[in-house]
Amino acid sequence: MNQIEKNGKILPYHIQRKKIKNVYFRIKEDYVYITANKHVSEKNIVKLIETKFDVLYQRLQKKEFIKDDEIRIWGKLYHLHIVPGRFRYEIIEDTLYCQTNEIDIQKLRKRIYLKEIILMTDQLKNNVNDTLHKVGIQALPYKYKYLKSKYGSYHRKHLEITLNTFLATLDPIYLEYVVYHEYAHHKVFNHSKAFYQVLDEMMLNHKVIQKRLKKMEIM
Q1: Considering the entire predicted model, what is its pTM?
Q2: How many domains does the chain have?
């Protein structure tokens, strides 16, 4: 674990090399987790950290950690009550009652996220399809996966959209935005002016939603 000090403040960080194009910063429990291509020198990464030091330090201090007996679903925090048995759950007021034999809390949360996002995309289906029809875009199948660095992706080769199940922890408006964003790529693959014109037709307030989403951390 490395660290950078500035004005008496210490920022721990760890660099992980991956086959990616950009440098990504994620806030972990007590340090900044950085993923970067092997061709990006550590010296340049350190320079990036230094330019973002105050923002990263502030985000590290404000990081919200969910307790083992809690779960966040669609922007609301619930008490998580677990009993042994075949997997099923229901939400009653401020508590999510879950019957499961899974002992790994994070795996259990991810299973619930998957169930929730499938239900929510089904609820949004009619409105989404109506919007797609207006802009001349064909509906595509969804794949669901817990991703660490992005909220969704469009696969041009397979003509399908992957959605990050972590979206089930946020307000549903962010899922709706990601769906439209990826569908816009179905019509315009890059982030050109034409792409954003298509997105404008599907979701007028997408710029506001995107700005908020960029400030959030995938945990």
Answers
A1: 0.76
A2: 3
